[in-house]
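In the design runs reported in the main text, the only information available to the sequence generator was the tokenized backbone. The following block is the verbatim input for one such run; it is reproduced so that readers can re-run the procedure and compare outputs position by position.
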């Protein structure tokens, strides 16, 4: 059985950020005994999502990325002659620039070869400390484990769930996680949801020539980041000062609020709406029914019932996380039970599960990291916290508990 200092499950942006912080600020030689477990290549799911939605730029500022140096991406762009790939008032990097920068970090820091292409099937906390990582190819023992996974499930509104129950998962009525660009040209499209994903899908169909109706519960909310900038400073400090994890979860969920759209994408949508390529309605959905080869969506608009025929109905209503969604925590839940709030576990300050050396990054760290926990910013906040707890010399950029 191979012995490791650190085992990380997941090879996405959260893991890359953590490894960059370890390399820069962590205990000496820690990376020499570190392995990352993921069947997919580095950032594969991230690349796939951006390609599916044809996302041209990130929803983050130029100083938000996996490198501990906030100006690393800016410097990389200058060296490559690509400074024109920052956009808007916060310098949003292009998708290609960000991807190339992440690849440069993997190569220059020697992180790429740390990945073991194996699926982790079990994580066993040990009474003596550390944990065992079980894969089909063998078992490893690690002093520390980090789950840098994304245990979320789509939020399916009742009207879509009821339609699935009556008609089955027939083509055309779907959650946005199942949407692909190949559905263009099939007829009228209804997109439901007020966030960036809904906007991207609506714009993609409109630009392909499909008649599009976009339904939101309220007027479009403009916001460059997932959360307001104060949540990376003043508000984050107040958040950590609240002793009750349940109250922190409530604060974080309220801070995220409903869907919002950055200024660039909002302006593009407004142009499509003004040109008649998209009809925007602030109308709640009453129901969805199958009609021949298509669908009929019933909404309440200006006090009247309005029927919208559609070949495709795409529900971009986000996702939800819960500790039960992460199967690798089943032993922690049964052997080292801890309290939770709205499905989020009460973690220690170093993001470890109670009475274990198993740490969580990403959505399950909401109560400790804050409302940006799923983003690259959240990965930086979490990495600062975790590496510091391991004896690293971290210069914190984000407020947190002392």
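Verbatim output:
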């Amino acid at each position: 059985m191979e012995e490791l200092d650190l085992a990380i499950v997941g090879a996405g942006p959260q893991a890359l950020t953590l490894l960059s912080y370890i390399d820069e600020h962590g205990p000496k030689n820690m990376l020499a005994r570190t392995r990352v477990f993921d069947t997919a290549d580095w950032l594969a799911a991230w690349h796939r999502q951006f390609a599916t939605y044809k996302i041209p730029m990130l929803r983050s500022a130029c100083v938000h990325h996996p490198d501990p140096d906030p100006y690393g991406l800016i410097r990389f762009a200058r060296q490559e002659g690509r400074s024109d790939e920052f956009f808007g008032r916060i310098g949003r990097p292009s998708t290609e620039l960000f991807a190339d920068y992440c690849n440069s970090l993997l190569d220059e820091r020697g992180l790429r070869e740390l990945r073991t292409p194996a699926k982790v099937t079990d994580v066993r906390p040990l009474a003596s400390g550390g944990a065992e990582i079980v894969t089909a190819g063998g078992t490893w023992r690690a002093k520390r484990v980090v789950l840098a996974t994304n245990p979320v499930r789509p939020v399916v509104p009742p009207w879509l769930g009821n339609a699935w129950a009556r008609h089955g998962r027939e083509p055309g009525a779907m959650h946005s996680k199942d949407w692909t660009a190949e559905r263009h040209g099939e007829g009228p499209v209804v997109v439901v949801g007020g966030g960036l994903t809904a906007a991207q899908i609506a714009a993609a169909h409109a630009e392909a020539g499909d008649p599009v109706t976009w339904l939101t519960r309220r007027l479009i909310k403009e916001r460059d980041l997932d959360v307001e900038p104060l949540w990376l400073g003043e508000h984050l400090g107040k958040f950590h000062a609240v002793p009750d994890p349940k109250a922190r979860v409530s604060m974080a969920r309220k801070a995220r609020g409903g869907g919002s759209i950055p200024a660039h994408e909002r302006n593009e949508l407004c142009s499509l709406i003004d040109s008649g390529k998209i009809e925007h309605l602030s109308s709640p959905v009453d129901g969805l029914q199958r009609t021949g080869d298509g669908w009929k969506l019933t909404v309440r608009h200006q006090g009247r019932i309005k029927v919208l025929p559609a070949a495709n109905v795409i529900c971009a209503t986000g996702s939800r996380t819960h500790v039960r969604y992460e199967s690798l925590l089943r032993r922690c839940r049964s052997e080292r039970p801890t309290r939770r709030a709205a499905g989020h576990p009460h973690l220690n300050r170093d993001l470890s599960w109670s009475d274990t050396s198993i740490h969580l990054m990403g959505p399950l760290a909401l109560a400790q990291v804050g409302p940006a926990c799923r983003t690259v910013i959240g990965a930086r906040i979490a990495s600062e916290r975790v590496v510091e707890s391991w004896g690293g010399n971290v210069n914190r950029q984000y407020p947190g508990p002392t």
